Amino acid sequence: MILEKLSLINYKNIQEATLELSPKINCLIGQNGVGKTNVLDAIYFLSFCHSASNPNDSQVIRHGEEFLVLEGAYSDELHIYCGMKRGTKKHFKRNKKEYKRLSEHIGLIPLVMVSPADTLLIEGGSEERRRLMDLVISQYDRSYIESMNRYNKALQQRNTMLKLEDVEPDPEVISLWEEQMAIEGERIFARREAFVKELVPIFQHYYEQISGNREQVSIEYVSHCQRGPLLEVIQRDRAKDRIMGYSLHGIHRDDLVFSLGGHPLKREGSQGQHKTFVISLKLAQFDFLRRTNNQTTPLLLLDDIFDKLDAERVEQIVRLVAGDEFGQIFITDTNREHLDSILSRSSHDYKIFHVEDGVIHV
């Protein structure tokens, strides 16, 4: 997939910009806070129908403005339009035809973004790591999104009943919601388990390349589904859940355990090792999507990825992303030297954009 032209109006701090893009390498250079990341976020928005960093759509509209427009012209004559007025729902169109459901768009334009916020995968709660799995799987398996929606609805209904104060929940009704949770939960578990099993060796391969094979890393998937039939696991502690007022068991508590040298990554390693872990994980995600999503090469967005890495690891990442196995790449950095190093190693076409206070110059 190639993004040939990107147009932005009133997106975050960018009032208006139209970029004719390179099919291979696009570099955005500028100081921190000038709008480089906002360009990448707009590209992300066109793939996932929401911002990578802000869950509130109205907050991505430029201050003092009442609307935003994003447009992307892609290869194979694909045109994506997003328009939104403040306080109203957004409109997404594919080749001028509006989607009835935004979920129909997910997976059409596969994309992987690496950013400083990815440290939350290590430092944050389990919801960050579940989001990673969901983000990847939903790009190649639309039924996964539908299962997630049904599971979350059943979970919400069960939790509502668990919170009842004046009356006991109807055992037949709560059982129905538990059965729905179990059916959809086991489907979700099977897809997550298969995904992690295939992802781990790819991830370890990238980590070995970037680190010079100096450290051993692993990822383990942990789920309540591994304790037996999920319905039994959920119903076994219904009384405890009633006391707590929410569901303690289910795939909404799944997690990924990251390890470095056989020890929990969260308590081990340097900032550089943590960043190497995350970048390797995202590059493995890219490789996985490239092979599973109808052989469509994802867009790769690299936002300020070289900070806190030693020269040797930067060298290895540069060598990797400049290779033929990667498609169209977008890179932001404050340091022109890193980008010059990438460009000098690549025989591919490239463009450099200079960003200053929301204004973009070629």
Q: What is the SS-derived class?
A: alpha/beta
Strand order, sheet with most strands? 2-1-4-5-6-7
Mean pLDDT: 89
Q: H/E series, N to C?
A: EEEHEEEEEHHHHEHHEEHEHEHEE
- Rg over CA atoms, rounded to whole Å, is 22 Å
Number of strands: 15
Stretches with pLDDT under 50, minimum 5 residues: none
Largest sheet: 6 strands, antiparallel
What count of helical segments does DSSP give?
A: 10
Through-space gap between termini = 23 Å
Estimate the strand proportion. 15-25%
* Shape label: globular
Helix fraction bin: 40-55%
Summarize the structure.
This protein is α/β, with parallel strands linked by helices and 362 residues long. It has helices at 36-48, 120-123, 126-140, 142-162, 171-211, 230-236, 238-244, 271-292, 311-321, 336-345; strands spanning 3-11, 14-20, 25-29, 67-74, 78-85, 91-94, 97-98, 111-114, 217-222, 255-260, 263-264, 299-303, 329-333, 350-356, 359-361. The protein contains 10 helices and 15 strands.
Overall description:
This protein is of the alpha/beta class and 362 residues long. Helix content is 42%, strand content 22%. It is built from ten helices and 15 strands. The protein has helices at residues 36-48, 120-123, 126-140, 142-162, 171-211, 230-236, 238-244, 271-292, 311-321, 336-345; strands spanning 3-11, 14-20, 25-29, 67-74, 78-85, 91-94, 97-98, 111-114, 217-222, 255-260, 263-264, 299-303, 329-333, 350-356, 359-361. The strands form three sheets. A six-stranded antiparallel sheet has the order 2-1-4-5-6-7, with helices on one face. It is globular, with a radius of gyration of 22 Å. The two termini are 23 Å apart. The model has no long low-confidence stretch (mean pLDDT 89).
